[in-house]
Fold:
Amino acid sequence: MRNSAELQAFVKAAKAQGATDEFLLALLRDKGWPAKDVYEVFAQLYAEQTGIVLPAPPGRIEAAREAFFHLLAFVTLATWIFSIGSIWFELIEGWVPDPTIDRFDGFVIGLISRQLASIIVAFPAFLWATRSILRDQIENPDKADSAVRRWVSNISLLLTALVFLGDLIAFVTSVLQGELTARFAFKCLVVVVLTGAVFLYYSRGLGKSRTLPPVMWHRVFAGCAGLVMVLTLGFGFWSTGSPSNARVLNEDSRRVRDLYDLTVQIENKRYSGGLQGPPASLADVALTARDPFSGQPYEYRRLDGDRYQVCAEFKAASPTASGPPALFWAHPAGRKCFDIGFARSAPPPPNYFR
Structure:
């Protein structure tokens, strides 16, 4: 601060003559002195009179804490909103299938399971972060319009708008490339509802209000979000089945991969060992393979010509599929044998949950 000694001497002399702080502040600001410099001189004079230095406010710590909760609320909101959208997209894919696209329900089950896990973790974290923000704003009303809040809210609005525009561009591109109209309409509706809800939440509940955001508004939003959450979780678990069912599908997926690996080893023996046809037994080519869960050996049978079979006992029927590799390895619950051509490799099986 320039000429601080002269300013301090002037203020000290004026106050000795009875001038008030309000009068001095108005006078000095009228003469061009910044209010910050005047207040700094006031603080120095009162520190001399009281013998106590004016304590610094915990601004940085509070700002960091406030930014943490606002960012946590935004990230968790984005997480469960994205997960809801992904689940409904997959449900729409199943309800309104496109015959030009191969679909394997096993992969869809894995994707929906991951999105369900994201919702179960992110939504309670969002409620906790939002509750902490509201409680802090009730105790400190000035924080309802803090710079941290405005920055996070405006960035959230910008990202929401960009996602909305990007998804619309992608959907229009899909329509121009021949995607089914019903699929486009349903997906577009999902995007409009989700991004519209986020935009409304931040613009009305956190973004542009100049006063303390009403707690009731957040309760209404949380209640509506909770209803959508219950509906989404219900359809999601209906699509994926129970965790025990997922475990069974994982075991059957391992059996399919083992059978495929067995065909690859037989093919390798064909090239390295000079086999002219399928071996009479696996022992002839020094191969063994067992079910890792039951301990029983996989079955191998040589058929007429250059064909052979590999068999296994499956606990459940394979997920619905429309692509050639998945259809080749489709199986019911119980024993299933797959016909393999010695001169033609079996297609790699789909991975159920990866």
